[in-house]
Amino acid sequence: SRYFTITSRPEGLPSPDVFSLEEMELPALGDGELHVRNLWLSVDPYMRNRMDGVKTYIEPFDLNAPLEGAALGEVVESRDERFKPGDKVRHMAGWRDEAHVSADSVERLPDLDVPLQTYLGVLGMPGMTAWTGLNTIAGLGSDDTVLVSAASGAVGSLAVQLAHQKGCRVVGTAGSDEKCDWLKSLGVSPVNHHQSAEALTKAIKAAAPQGIDVYFENVGGPMLDAGLASMNDYGRIAVCGMISRYNSASAEGPANIAMVLTKRMRMQGFIVLEHWADYQKFIEEAGPLVAAGKVEYQESVFDGLEATPEAFLSLFESGTYAGKRLVRL
Ligand code: NDP
Asked: Where is the Enoyl reductase (ER) domain (predicted)?
């Protein structure tokens, strides 16, 4: 098995030479285990936080051990009666080409007429995150005006479409004109986020003069200050991510945090894994929309295991790569 590891704890944006491609021989397959050959690997922003040697809601990655992440694989050998060769499963032994995994730890995939890799994107963890943040955390109603940051990304692009289909007015921020054009085609009022917090606030105000009721926050930094300044009284902020801070331990702000008080807002962070019991409900709602082409999604596909670090690092570039980052093996 070939796998990626990190050989040191990165500071700031990881340099590509933090990653090392290693090889090991897999031991004999144990009882209750599956030998899976990976077909698609997911890279996700949260992995950056696991590279720091600090436990948060999840353990840090061990140095020199295989990295982990969501992956889709095919069972090539099974020592569990529930699975047979050829079955497709989702599991956490990503960043490698093949692995032995416990059958208890894998997920079977829903039976929908959709491309396999959507189970890592719009119908996987990112999609479930959009749905959870809007519904469970923000309690979205059809008369809400919604702001989504990183709105054209894997999470954001489903969030804006679910909100729009509910009848909400939606403002979305993104880092390039192309991304803004795509958002516009989805019925979203786009704002390019490459401007100061003050200018962003003005642009959001121009797009939604009635103010923002629900803010789905993915970015942090000046974006969060602009979001706070754009909120109506009693607004709800679902804090999903802070990607602009993941590579800078000493980032300042937000300057406008006192507005949570003055506007009597509710601001709540969430981790989608804690809501995984609702995944079936999410699939029942979003699965048919994706299968029928009523939800659009974008992908940036990187080919070959060697490209995994590059795919991961692309998440921290603004404006360049679109949608869900995937590695195809
Ligand atoms: P995306 O597909 O949105 O990709 C990341 C995007 O973030 C980039 O394409 C870029 O978009 C934007 N970005 C990167 N760096 C910056 C920066 N410094 N300032 C502003 N924008 C930046 O990734 P995901 O959809 O997978 O994740 C989106 C967010 O959701 C992340 O914050 C992630 O951590 C969070 N998340 C949280 C979960 C939870 O359980 N709470 C679960 C899954 C994701 P652009 O070109 O538009 O600038």
From this structure: 12-327
